[in-house]
Amino acid sequence: MTRRHRLLAAAVAAPLIALSLATAAPVQAASSPDSRRVLPGTHPAWAQPSADQGPVQSAAPVSVRIYLAGRDQAGLEAFARAVSDPHSDQYRQYLTPEELKERFGTSPEQVAAVRGWLASTGLTVTGETEHYLVASGTAEQAQQAFGVQLHSFRRGAETYQAPDADASVPSDVAGAVLAVYGLNTAPHQVHHGGGEGRPGAAAGPARRDTLPGPASAFVNSGPFSDYYGSNPATGTPPAYGQVQPYALHGYDGAHLRSAYGAAATGLTGEGVTVAIIDAYDSPTLGDDVTTYAAAHGDAPYGKDQLLRYDPLMWTHTQAPSDADPTGCGAQGWYGEQTLDVEAVHAVAPSAAIRYVGATSCQDPDMIDALQRVVDAHLADIVSNSWGEAESDSDPALDPVYGQIFRSGAAQGIGFYFSSGDDGDDEAATGKKQTDMPASLDWATAVGGTSLGLDRDAAYSFETGWGTHKAALAADGQSWVNFPGPFTSGAGGGTSARVPQPAYQRKVVPTSLSGANGGRNRVVPDIAAVADPNTGFLVGQTQTFPDGTVRYSEYRIGGTSLAAPVIAGLQALAQQAAGCALGFANPAIYDRFGSSSYHDVTDHPFGPDVELAEVRVDFVNGVNAADGTATSIRSLGKDSSLHAVPGYDDVTGVGTPTADYLTSYADDHRARPRQH
């Protein structure tokens, strides 16, 4: 489709903006000209002596971002905690963006001090925003500035530059510097989710400043069940003692609103704004979401209900390749964006949506998009269906993400992140770990379930989303190596580097928080449907093998679905509350053990009842020209993670009910804990 709907307005980003000139306290003075403060996480774990290829050339070019700390980080942390705590007298007494900048933003004195220090080392400031400076120069100059030696290190088949130890900054500018990014040149890019069966990016080059057209098509094959168990796969071998049903055709908004109690409350998200952050921006989004809403009985979009905020240019749009592993594959992000918008609108049809596209999937570009939401307070609820394994993420950026999230919390903005689609990550990375930024203590991590509704679309059951897959044998008489290997599941587990936050202490079992020694953050916090076999129908313009480009629908899942579903439900809860929910984790855990949640387990019908679905797929992903493949997908088998009674590392505190949504109507002030 080429017609552009006027109701889907687009907004274009402004160029880098100048620093605010608010009055500030002076920068901390140095106690000694040789004293320095270390910036933790700047020496990557993979840069080991065994991988050291020697020093980089002193004249090698270096470009870094120096993120600015602003005034009174400790004060910002304390304020954000107070306004997020239902038992604090300051609960929900948020700041405006202007008040936040005046109280905690970067001062002119801090900027001048950092500029002077950089100039003294020979580095040149080549870019500036109110949150960071970009400095360029040589390796020799960077080494002097940050007190390290830059070496080349092997990482897999590639070689990258990295410091030989943690970088540091002089004490006289330490109070102004939050973090430095760029000394380590390994690519750090986040990935969208979506679960098995999602169309990916097409191979081949694309201009770095132009978005490619619609992605290659993906189509589900039938037979389908209309609701869980409605259509037994007669003629296929039994599993777990009986013939299992075909996978679902796919849920829509009416199903999700029924499952999680929204339909019973009458809440629609009126007066609430949700932001969605992904990389790039689908060129067909406007027509796609409008067509989808009409096809599924969702409310039509009102004037300016969906606005899109894009940067001035796109980068890394090509698909990743051996020649250029930094490619993000822009086409693969189109389906993610479309899913996020359609899911939020389906659950909260009256909520305003603000889509913020990042220049690329590189960490700094995603950070810029997050920061844009906070600076302009574009929304109170921010859905993020992206992340990366903790060991692949850059710990040097943890303070930057944390600063954004705390600044958002101070204004009443909450950030929701999908917990990942690879379970404990061991199968995907060789190591049990969690995902970032979902594991940070100021983010709400959203896990996933497999959802079953009855013939009336009423809630029947949920299990933790975790799938084992076994193919149908060639003779059709058995399932090969049943139940088969783990293929996908909700991300969860215990972070290796984030300490346990206070809101988890009375809820999360010590067997989980202490899994890595000490007491650490466990994810997820809350959950919703994610299993692509019990997933959501998404409508998107796709490119078919015959060259036609047209709208079609397919079933999708992953915690990329769960995150916007929870964001939509939070919009309903905020409507009930009549004010912004802000950073929601303290309130989410405050309701643990109450009727606010479905307590999801892997065996909702008892320990002896196993659940599964039979799925038929087109071999070529589009049609039956090359035949079909039949497999059986077991439910509730998420690698080493388990959904059990109470808090667990697949679904957190559980999934929301109607009582969860309406409980916020009486939650303006402190209320008794329900532990």
Automatic annotation (TrEMBL):
Cofactor field: Ca(2+)
Lineage: Bacteria, Bacillati, Actinomycetota, Actinomycetes, Kitasatosporales
PROSITE patterns: SEDOLISIN (PS51695), SUBTILASE_SER (PS00138)
Domain (Peptidase S53): residue spans on this chain: 250-668
Domain of life the protein comes from: Bacteria
Keywords, ordered alphabetically: Calcium, Hydrolase, Metal-binding, Protease, Serine protease, Signal, Zymogen
Signal peptide: 1-24
Chain spans, region Disordered: 30-56, 188-215
GO terms, biological process: proteolysis
InterPro entries: Peptidase_S8/S53_dom, Peptidase_S8/S53_dom_sf, Peptidase_S8_Ser-AS, Peptidase_S8_subtilisin-rel, S53_propep, Sedolisin_dom, Tripeptidyl-peptidase_I
Pfam family, one: Peptidase_S8
This protein's name: Protease pro-enzyme activation domain-containing protein
GO molecular function: peptidase activity
